[in-house]
Specification:
Length: about 190
Amino acid sequence: MSTSAHPTAETDSATASAARSGGTVTDRLVELNTRYSEAFTDPGMDARPVLHVAVVACMDARLDLHAALGLELGDCHTIRNAGGVVTDDVIRSLTISQRALGTRSVILIHHTNCGLESLTEGFRQELELEVGQRPVWAVEAYSDADQDVRQSMQRVRTSPFLLHTDDIRGFVFDVTTGKLREILPTS
């Protein structure tokens, strides 16, 4: 079953059904989930990732992390946000992942041609002017993915909340080749 933007007979049928009922993309996805659930069987998995790893990556739709890393359902925790940057909320998720669910390794993945490379912290001021309230969060924009991966690795390594900081590795995923390029931390 495919829920990608690339139509299949099944998604075309679900899209047509949603369109007839005045539906939205969400309606289409809910209908596809109904079909998925009809064939679903409980895999009997624990919430603890089999590989004891958490992957922090950008939310970019071009990154199919499971396929790119050869992962299966249940192998890892996946934490995604704009840019794949390590924010306070990522540290929160990693802390829960490690302390409550047994992960020991962290993989950080940024990618080429990231949308954050075209933003600045001025984005927050623009939002404030538009809506009358400045966001409390930082944009975390960057112009150098390699350097931001290094910064993210350092944030993980120095967090007092994380138990396991010896196996932290960072990469940049090339969206045109599908290859990971490892980024070494600063000494």
